[in-house]
Write a structure and sequence with these properties.
10 helices, alpha/beta, about 25% strand, about 400 residues, 18 strands, 10-stranded mixed sheet
């Protein structure tokens, strides 16, 4: 992510910015990238940040420059975006059931010795599908996803894990190089009970991995094995549990897949991220949606020109941070966003403390994944809100 020369103040009348707009603070993005990189180095784990959060080549390059081992993706389309952006190591953190894309991945492995790719399997049917899709080229590396009752995809029991592993081991088209999990669906809290549940699940994933190694079902040609999990709420627990397994019959690499840390937020991750509290090693919210006041139709009610098309609402409604008046920022006290329409935010303030029609209000948001997918182009700004570049997302 290269910064342009400092541009005009985005709030200036001649800046060309139309509102609402998503502003991303460059200093917060760089800080968060370095904090996460430092955490991974300290805990001897690798990071393949989940690109689904932003699907942005510019933001991926920032993460790569901070030392990311690779990039995780959720779909073939996302994999192509990051491959075209120069990513050399892609983890499709999902089951690959698209035959044409499986052949594409195999061709890339065959023609580019510097490219690495891996995907998930969790069923014998999925293994057969890939076998039918692939040709006599290099074996496609796969990891077995270990799930849990009520969760997303992933094997639900040891018998299924063993059956899938044996099917992969018998295939000339696939190579089993590790296991994967997703702990974010186990809990959504960070109290002692929630953390214990996450640990128990991750210990189960580790046990399945060790059992596969003991049974000789992991690929004998692999230079290392992968043990991967780690969304943005419990990556510390993943590092703790997975970090105890550094070696089977060859090195074991723990790969975190956290993605929301980079933009962070003023809501869900601000409350629950392991590094979301205050202090020099805490993540900082990088994104703000600025909207204009359309109407103050009654005392204490303010209507803004942003809504469900512009701000996430799947985890929390936005938080009104403050407004600009006469070139200064004024915090909003005692205010609350209580409803969103497609293009309207309903903001309640104390009577007599409303921002005026036409003034700009900063909204802090919750859940970066559903913030970025609303903006194909965001403005990159410095700490003085001067434009320094643009960030593009490919959803």
């Amino acid at each position: 992510m290269e910064s342009a020369e400092t541009g005009p103040l985005v709030f200036a009348p001649d800046s060309g910015v139309e509102w609402p707009a998503l502003l991303l603070k460059e200093s917060a993005l760089r800080h968060n990238a370095e904090v996460m990189a430092h955490y991974c180095r300290d805990h001897e784990v690798s990071l393949a940040p989940h690109g689904k959060t932003h699907v942005s080549p510019e933001l991926w390059h920032l993460q790569e420059g901070a030392g990311a081992w690779g990039v995780s993706v959720a779909s073939p389309g996302q994999a192509r975006v990051f491959h075209e952006a120069g990513a050399r190591r892609i983890l499709l953190a999902n089951q690959l059931v698209d035959a044409a894309f499986a052949r594409w991945a195999q061709r890339q492995l065959a023609t580019d010795e510097d490219f690495e790719f891996c995907c998930y399997v969790d069923s014998v049917a999925g293994v057969r599908l890939l076998e039918d899709a692939l040709d006599s080229g290099p074996a496609l590396p796969v990891v077995i996803e270990i799930g849990h009752d009520g969760g997303r995809a992933g094997c639900r029991d040891s018998a299924t894990v063993r059956a899938v592993a044996e099917a992969v081991a018998a295939s000339d088209s696939l190579a089993l190089v590790g296991v994967a999990g997703y702990e974010g669906s186990v809990s959504h809290a960070r109290d002692a009970q929630a953390l214990d549940a996450v640990r128990e699940y991750l210990r189960g994933v580790t046990a399945e991995f060790q059992n596969l190694g003991a049974a000789g079902l992991l690929d004998s040609a692999a230079t290392e094995y992968l043990l991967t999990a780690g969304g943005s709420l419990y990556f510390d627990v993943v590092a703790e549990v997975f970090g105890r397994v550094r070696y089977l019959d060859r090195p074991v690499r723990t790969v975190l897949r956290s993605g929301a840390y980079l933009t962070h937020d003023h809501g869900l991750y601000g409350r629950l991220s392991p590094l979301g509290a205050s202090g020099p090693r805490a993540f900082r919210p990088a994104g703000e949606v600025w909207a204009q006041v359309l109407s103050v139709p009654e005392p204490g009610l303010v209507l803004l020109n942003a809504g469900r098309r512009d701000v996430p609402y799947d985890q929390d409604l936005p938080t009104a941070l403050g407004y600009r008046r006469d070139g200064s920022f004024h915090r909003l006290q005692g205010s609350e966003v209580f409803e969103l329409n497609d293009h309207h935010t309903f903001l309640r303030t104390p009577a007599g403390q409303e921002p005026a029609v036409g003034e700009l209000v900063a909204l802090g948001t919750s859940h970066p994944c559903t913030l970025h997918d609303k903006w194909s182009r965001a403005l990159l700004v410095d700490d003085h809100y001067r434009a320094v570049g643009a960030i593009h997302s490919h959803f």
